[in-house]
Hints:
The longest helix is centred in the first third of the chain and has 33 residues, at 16-48. This protein starts with a helix and ends with a helix. It has 2 domains: 3-193, no CATH class; 196-242. It is built from 12 helices and no strands. The protein is globular, with a radius of gyration of 20 Å. By secondary structure, the protein is an all-alpha fold. Mean pLDDT is 80; it is low at 5-13. Helix 2 (16-48) runs parallel beside helix 9 and helix 11 (200-216) packs antiparallel against helix 12. Belongs to the AzlC family.
Amino acid sequence: MSIEEIRRAPEPLPGARWTQDFALGLWHIAPLMVGAAPFGLLMGALAAHKGFGPLEMLLMSGTVFAGASQFVAIDLWRDPIPMLTIILATAMVNLRHVIMGAAMQPVMGRFGRYQSLAALFVMADEIWILAMRRAAQGRLTPAYYLGLGAVFYVNWLFWTGIGTVVGGVIENPARYGFDFAFTAVFLVLITGMWRGRASVAPLVASGTAALAAHAWLPGVWYILLGGIAGALAGAFSGAQKS
């Protein structure tokens, strides 16, 4: 089935078909919900040691809903809050969502306007992969996506909220290696974005700029400068090939 045929496909039948698609989405996302639990607990534990309570954590998870960006924000969180740095750093981390959303748009023909906006709000890496796989089969429906996104969203809120309660009783998270979470997040992102030789220049430029900034500049400028250097190197190498 072509993308145009998917776009023009009629709405799924109500009743049993809707329930079936929703249940299938829930079934497909269930293993990933289990995998997200320790990640959410860790997120909440780290936030608790930055002064977050359960309500603040639920508000952050509910409005941001982006684990990697939340780890970045928590790592940068201090008094006074470096608001601009946090905004720019988290925007860089989640810039991939722009490309992911653009890739998904052609296969959302069954979605209404508000359904599309809600779907994009709860779009995470895991949800996007499963939704695109379903779309390749010509069967991506709002009910299926709701089974993926809604329950994964609630799952993330639940475990990050519990994490603040658990984390509040842990006196020294670094003792258990919790302070490595920020580094681990970026290692995972780098692994996922690796594209062979084309990735070498951006990674080298980003790493060099970040190390230099960390050594010579106060604060967390190494995050912003490393991201900018990597983006410029990627753009420059791409322009040379075209």
